[in-house]
Write a structure and sequence with these properties.
It is a multi-pass membrane protein. The chain is 61% helix and 7% strand. The chain is an alpha/beta fold and 535 residues long. Strand 3 and strand 4 (446-453) form a beta hairpin. 44% of the residues are buried.
Length: 535
């Protein structure tokens, strides 16, 4: 392995790392491209939009958003979580060009959210909820892709909801697939999973990416079964539009209808898309940062700005609204992606496939792509993750499991919201138990109680302190010591002073030590502030 030479110039260092990363990013980009391709088409179909709209959204998400984003592993594109919103918006607004105007305005709103630093909301999602979301996505990938692996499913949208657009749910789709499986699809998917599991174990052979080998196997399998009694049907294959010439390609684009700028319904749709897309993006970014092998942290405000630019661009040329998508991003991580070049290349492959090799792409069976996602899902929801969360304690394990179940049976945003509520309950429970400590000492016939407050006493501690003070027996000397406290919430201060004022009615003498009338929010250490300002 080449050693880093400190005498290298800046350009030499850049070339060295670029070459090193490209060995991983190029193969990973092909995997992401193959995963994204059918999802882009399926989401466009489920949204009631032209198939080309799904592809152009994936292309822009790969090339434009990834170029602007600070995330090295996130992959953006049309999101299954927005299909219901998009389908309803196209219907309610009356025309697709009017809907495109709403997409452009949604991008503008996201730019504003990024500029006012609303991306920091992503920092308040507990790790147990994010881990639960990842595990749920893994389970969803496995359950949703099983029908495709068996060759029986007409709904390849990759939707995260329990109820599907084809009127099936997660489990009924699997039951139907088992009853009507396709032998050719099953053989291809089983062999594909075997290759994905076994091939990377041979280091000398692993120079050829396993997913690329799987796709090659899929094409050969399609040709083989075409000459048997079990050929693969057209609905079991990837489908992209076949474009004959530049003029036909240019006619696929649609411009937004700016004459509808005065239509208030356009702004309602735009705001809805902006909020939901931003939340999904922040959740996805938080999750991808957790599974990044290098543990890099994405600047969330910059991500919102990048998504805004992407949605403005997408709306201007006829595309769908986009988000950072956890399925494609996790496939990128598990395929070995290292930098944003993987996402950018995946967008380029989508564009080139549309222009030059639609016939070859349409020979890829969905069952081999399902195998790639099955293995990705297993890596996200491995048993060791559940064991790890269990050993971290009930306050981590319960929100984790609740999030998994909620996401599995509802959808991404609702499931995370339910997980957050459970996590907040445990947060309140913990704060109620740990706001202070106290010591009881007897002096004659009276008891002396010293209550020493913690360093930070927030409004979450108010209920616990009220309970403790209420339970103090009559004829007691109480000392409330705030010598350790850097900050006491005004509500808690009011509770303490009210107690001191009324305690004499019970024969209780209250003494306050080192407790101020007012506390300001603690500032950063001066030296830390100076260092930040220098940056």
């Amino acid at each position: 392995m080449q050693k880093f030479n400190p005498a290298f110039s800046g350009s030499d260092v850049k070339k060295y790392f670029l070459k090193k990363n490209l060995k991983k990013d190029l193969p990973s980009s092909i995997v992401v491209f193959l995963v994204a391709l059918p999802l882009c088409l399926g989401i466009a179909l489920a949204s009631g939009a032209p198939l080309f709209a799904g592809l152009i959204t994936g292309i822009i998400g790969g090339i434009v958003v990834a170029s602007c984003s600070g995330s090295q592993l996130s992959v953006s594109g049309p999101a299954a979580g927005l299909t219901v919103i998009v389908l309803g918006a196209i219907t309610s607004l009356g025309s697709y060009p009017t809907f495109l105007l709403a997409v452009v305005l949604a991008g503008v709103f996201q730019l504003i959210l990024g500029l006012v630093k609303a991306g920091t909301i992503g920092n308040y999602f507990p790790s147990s909820v994010i881990e639960g979301m990842l595990a749920a996505i893994g389970l969803i990938l496995i359950l949703k892709q099983l029908p495709h692996a068996l060759g029986v499913d007409t709904d390849f949208t990759g939707d995260e909801g329990f109820f599907q657009q084809d009127h099936e749910n997660t489990f009924s789709a699997i039951t139907a697939a088992i009853s009507h499986f396709s032998l050719g699809a099953v053989v291809i998917s089983v062999l594909s999973v075997a290759i994905l599991v076994i091939w990377p174990k041979f280091q000398k052979l692993a120079i050829v990416p396993a997913p690329l080998l799987v796709v090659t196997l899929g094409v050969l399998g399609t040709l083989f079964f075409a000459g048997t009694d079990h050929p693969l049907r057209a609905d079991q294959m990837v489908k992209i539009p076949v474009v004959n010439g530049f003029d036909e390609f240019a006619r696929l684009f649609t411009l937004p209808d700016f004459s509808q700028l005065a239509n208030k319904n356009v702004y309602i749709v735009a705001l809805t898309i902006a909020i939901v897309a931003s939340l999904e993006t922040l959740l996805s970014i938080e999750a991808i940062d957790k599974i990044d092998p290098i543990k890099r942290i994405t600047p969330t405000n910059r991500e919102l700005i990048s998504q805004g630019i992407g949605n403005i661009t997408s709306g201007m040329v006829g595309g769908l609204p986009m988000t950072s998508v956890i399925v494609r991003s996790s496939a990128n991580v598990n395929a070995g992606g290292r930098t944003k070049m993987s996402a950018i290349f995946h967008g380029i492959w989508l564009l080139l496939s549309l222009l030059f090799i639609p016939g070859l792409i349409n020979m890829i069976p969905l069952s081999c792509l399902a195998a790639i996602l099955l293995v990705t899902g297993y890596k996200l929801t491995r048993i060791s993750l559940f064991k790890h969360m269990y050993h971290k304690g009930w306050d981590q394990f319960v929100p984790f499991v609740v999030t998994v179940v909620a996401v599995l049976f509802t959808d991404l945003l609702k499931g995370v919201a339910i997980g957050m509520l459970v996590s907040v309950f445990y947060l309140l429970r913990t704060n109620m138990r740990n706001p202070f400590f106290y010591r009881i000492a007897k002096e004659g016939d009276k008891k002396n109680i010293r209550i020493k407050l913690a360093e930070e006493v927030s409004f979450l501690n108010k209920a616990a302190i009220q309970v403790l003070l209420t339970d103090i027996p009559k004829e007691t000397n109480v000392i409330i010591d705030g010598s350790n406290a850097r900050y006491i919430d005004p509500d808690v201060l009011e509770t303490i002073y009210n107690y001191k004022h009324n305690a004499y009615t019970k024969g209780i003498v209250v003494t306050l030590e080192n407790i101020q009338k007012h506390y300001s929010v603690p500032k950063l250490n001066i030296k830390v502030e100076e260092d930040i300002n220098k940056l």
